[in-house]
Please model this.
Amino acid sequence: MGLSGLDIYKLLPKTNCRECGFATCLAFAMQLAKKAVSIDECPYLSSEAKAKLEAQAQPPIKLITIGQGETRLQVGNENVLFRHEEKFYHPPGIGFILEDNITDSEIKDRVEKINGLKFERIGQALEANLIAIRQNKDAKRFVDVVKIVSSNTLLGLVLMSDDTQGLKYALEVLKGKNPLIYHATKENSAGFAQLAKEYKVPLVAQADELEEASGLTVELAKQGVTDLIIEVSGKPMPERIWDLTQIRRLALKKSNRSLGYPSLVVIDKNDLYEEIQEAATYISKYAGIVLIKNIESWAVLSLLTLRQNIYTDPQKPLQIEPKLYPIGQVTDKSPVLITTNFSLSYYTVLGEVEASKIPSYIISVDTEGMSVLTAWAAEKFTPHKITETVNKFGVKGIVSHKHLVIPGYVAVISGELEDESGFKIIVGPKEAAGLPSFLKNLQYG
Amino acid sequence: MDKFKVTFLPDNKIVEVAKDTTILSAALSSGVCIKSDCGGDGVCGRCKVIVKKGRVLSQPSGLISAEDRKHNVHLACITTIHSDLEIEIPLESRLELTLGTEGIYSVSENVESGKKILSEISFKYCPLSTKLYLELPLPSLNDTASDLDRIFRGIRKTQNLPFVQTGLSNIRQLGELLRDSDWKVTVTLGKINDTLEIILVEPGDTSNRNFGICFDIGTTTISCQLVSLSSKKVLGTKAAYNKQAGFGSDVITRIIYSRQEEGMEKLHSAVTETMNQMIKELTVEHRVDLNDITCVVCAGNTTMIHLLLRVDPTYIKREPYVSTANFLPVLRAHEAGIIINPRGLLFCVPGVSSYVGGDTTSGVLSSGLYKEEGLSLLIDIGTNGEICLGSKDFLAACAASAGPAFEGSGVACGMRASTGAIQKVKIDAKSFSVTCSTIGDARPCGICGSGYIDLIASMLETGVIDRSGRIKLENHMRVRDSEAGKEFVLIFKEDSATSKDIVINEADIENLKRAKAAIYSAVSVLIKRMNFEFNDVKKIFIAGGFGTSLDVDNAIKIGLLPDVKREKIVFIGNSALSGARQMLLSIEASKKTDEIARKITYFELSADPGYMDEYMSALFFPHTDLNRFSSAK
Amino acid sequence: MVLQLMTERWTGEVSAVTIGAAAKDGGTRAYSIKIGGEKSLPCLFKEGTLPNKPQVAFEVFDVAPNDWPNEVLKPYGKSVNDPLEWAQMCVQDFKARSLCIRLLGAHPDFGNKSSEEEAQLIKKLLEKVSVPLIILGSGDDAKDNLLLPAISEAAKGECCLIGPAVQDNYKTIVAAALADGHCVIAESPIDVNIAKQLNILISDMGLPLERVVINPTIGALGYGLEYAYSIMERARLAALSGDKTLASPFICFVGQEAWRAKESKIETLPEQGIIWEVLTATALIQAGADLLIMRHPKAIEKVNRYIDNLMTNDRTQSSK
Model:
């Protein structure tokens, strides 16, 4: 475990000089504990304290980069075992295994399909990350396939081969593209370490057992290779979950450096559902990279969506799109209710409107996901902002009655809103639960 | 020394004052208030008076038109008295102070029951403003030091400070004043940083009449004390609801109101009216001349201080929540509209951040938290609750918006802790009959904070309410439906002082639940944030004006306070006011507040991901996590 | 170098809840199912026993559902018009181990069937099928306060799981379950605190927590799944750490949520709906789900197989 803010504070000068930009040494120390600032911001740190703090600043799980440019994949650097404790930072790479023993045109075809596995959900791009080329034949064929794939995709590559000579050729071809080599084992570690060092690329360290994996990474580190990814292979699902959990726990809680790397899982299942379900399991439980075979678009979409869910920042409020939502069979007489775009606010209002059976419009104002009172206090739910939203969605042209209903909690803004928007403002109930009876009695005077 | 009789019209108030006294001072002595925005520097021109009879001497001023001069109009602050006078105060110069409506505050309130603890901490006696009586040697051809130098020389004999300064208006009147008073004068001195300022020069010896007032300006309640700076005695204490409450019950609403047309003006006059009324009552009760109040210390949350000083508080509310000033220079009380001696000083206790103000700094000072060996906690339970965790090594603070329920506001039968407030309650488990005691043993008029704490604890214990705060007792004469959910009757109208039933309803319980949840969760998050647990805390100081005492067991039973060993918890009453008083009496204490305010690290709870969850889990009696309250199960 | 593993030593456990009463327990069910009882996090057998597999129940409505996409209606054909036939089909054709019957038809807006009528239906259903039953009200608070006591009485002694009890409306249903020997679904809106508070209020009424199942209110894959996922992880961690008030198994309405997703309604991609339901279930099992209410027979088949793979703890391997 790292040092706490107070532990760090004890190492600081405690002069509250504010030169670091924080109001007090303690405030700075708390940020240091969160690794949100650099210790270099403090100009008066003793060298002894600096050494201690630098050791602390290292991430417990190393960040590994595969590929390059915009499509590069970064995994590792996680801080917690459960997403609610903070958040999961680097979504696992999802990659597809491509055998080199199929025809060139089949290969191009598959690469094309993999390139096309791009989706968009709630404003975020969902994309697969890696193509793993697996050697089944000789080195020449392997290198040829690597060439075809690399000239047809921007995705990061994984080279799956035990043949150092073939790998060397392939790495030569892929210079600057930073592929991942799969994989070093206890038996071949020297040769693979050499390759990884020579071409400055990340390497998978594979073992059958955790202890062996730990020994292997220590050995590789001795040889100067520390851009590693761990694979503990060949076990049934529950065993793998145990191993992945141990790797994460030992790295985070025991600062075990030999396991302080992301992990990789290769799934070898022929049934599509089984493969996707297993992949989903490891996405939830600590995998850094998951390699599968299937490239069925609907199946991949479901996996990418799951990854998006699990790696959503739990500390950010869930937002919905700011919009005019018609609920039920609305007419130009239907009431218009204003709320925020905090999803809980919106869905609570929606639930009550649905329950009331009175067709209504709900306008969600962009409050950056804040609830009604918070947004009002932070000036994100002002008469001006509401007017802007109402105009943007053309409410004047949609309803004929010129009335808006605002939440009871912001009754104070009704006067100003009335002036600014030109609508008559009706103050609704404070709690959404009051909506059904409110809507039933609503009359425009 | 010559004394003259001055009659103020139309009030027909008569006062006897020494020669060379200004009309403004005389007016204050008589209890008539004249507007003076500049604090007696002769520059604002708002203190125009008409001299009907008698001889005065005015310093020249461009603020009086030729026409006015013809009609004997003078500026009260730069006009001295040289005979018996009759003076008319025109309407536009009058500051109307209607005395407080009866019942708003009671005469003697014990706002400081924790005195025992607080008095242990003392600073060297050295008040923020002192009076020094000087008998100066007469000038001669051998001693031709100027009048001002003569005074400086006299001061330096007792005070070891190189820089002494004073204002022009003092100098202007000096020549005549010294000679008329036979070189026997009293100077009022204030120390501003390292400079000694002559605030006032008065004829004769008034050195035993030097008073100060300290204030705790809360969002809901304002408390103050009149202190004799020469004898260190507290002459009187008062508390009243802040009149600003009419513009919203919490700081956020007030800030928003301040942006409306004349909003700032209204808020400012509401708070100064409340304060001036309190001052006036105290001075009348204790026969203190307003002129002899030379210094005011205000502890208040940041928004309150902004509004008092008419500084725009808008940015306190906007991300990233920055105030205009936390450390304020020494000001003239009159600049803020506080009516004491027109040249009297105003000190504001330095604040930490937008939501942790000088009241917290002041509380940390008076509780001695900053020098505790072991980890300690100060919880100030108010509308804007403040929590400070620390020891001599570090100080960390956060704010909790609790709402005014524990101050008896925003709840059906709530009232402040004053005479007639129910402060202890017990419900019989079988008959549900209610026994209660009131402050001053008067007939009950309402329920104060400590009463609510007792009440909810007994309602829980006897099963009148369930843990979520809903009234579950059915078919009983004390339970009935109301507009705010069900209600429980404590006192039937026959027995109440207001001839109305005294009740608690489900909406009240909800308010109190939210208030206690805000306080408890803020404490909990702050402790967690600093990597401690409740058990690591060695001492907990509870401050606030919700009663003269606090039943700690009941406060734990409802989940307001953490379930720790009872002996760790100390109730210290209004710690902000005590701190302000200590400042009033000691420059050292004042310097200490600077140090404390700089040392406190502020944590913004809204930025803490765990806060909302902690708050939600505290919305239950005592808490969703019953294991945290094992002794209260 | 010997690698020192890090093993959690949990002090608490999830309570085991039994649904369905066989003849020996005074009911008429062919068997009962047991859920909960975990002494460890999902799959981590080495830290504590996981005695009961997650269970999947088929969802059946008392009236033909009007909002199910075609893809999920198809396998049941015409039987959706007759709840008894539908239930029988689930049990006989799809080998359902338990059924979840939702009495939507009692809702004032969806038929307003009387409590007596619904009680009769439950009685017939109990005769027709012998699997354990989960019974849900209409979703209208006022109606359910009349309906659920009647249902509870009609199924007296069968140890059904009935619900939902919510914070604003728990007393009637808890009292009924207490009287007739059923278990209760305690439903809270994606909020671990309310889940806990509701459990406390329910146990304050005298119903032992061993007869409570928590419905944490889930979202489907892509529709807030992660909220329930984390709520469940948190609650489970608390339970294993000794917090009895959160130590109830979870019931998750997977089918209901998954088939509401936009992705499940695309006619040209019939399997997308199935995998949506499958993956929603898969993720929630990893978060600790104990009882999954699902709709599509193929999705249920896949999830059941997954559970088997997951829960087959190969001891020879683990002792290696």
Summary: Chain B touches chain A at residues 252-253, 256, 317-319, 353, 394-396, 529-531, 598-602, 606, 609 (CB under 8 Å). Confidence is low (pLDDT under 50) at residues 97-120 of chain B.
